[in-house]
Amino acid sequence: MKTKDYLTLLNGISGFLGIILALQGSQIAPLYIIPAIIFDFLDGRFARSGRPDSFGKELDSLSDLISFIIAPSIIVYAFAPSLLILIALILFVCNGLIRLARFNIQKEKKFFFGLPSPLAALIVLAIFLLSNYILTIIVLLATSFLMTSSIKIKKI
Fold first, then answer.
1. What pTM value is reported for the model?
2. With pLDDT > 70 as the criterion, what percentage of the chain qualifies?
């Protein structure tokens, strides 16, 4: 394994710890997103500075699935369980899975297609923490569809 792969694992571990904290009812569970985004950013920097490697790309998508799709979904549901939230979260998870699978086969190197999952997770958790139930549902639906949209976002 390469250095970037350890950073990728730390991203996934951050998401896993966010899930555990949410299941324990800890109010600090949403803060897991901070180290997850940092590790994801750093592993991306390392990945772009070296040769492309399919193992690293797959590991990155699996870690992103945990940290930016599953963890925020569990956190939102743990603190606001309802049928409407569950339906919105199912759409968020499905579109997140599609977005990550599509990323793995993407040939374009300079742009993302669709809203990147770390940004989607950050938006969802911020709105969830700072707003209300209805706006959280609206943002879950919007980010879900933006993840699988054809919008181009320049990689940084």
1. 0.93
2. 96
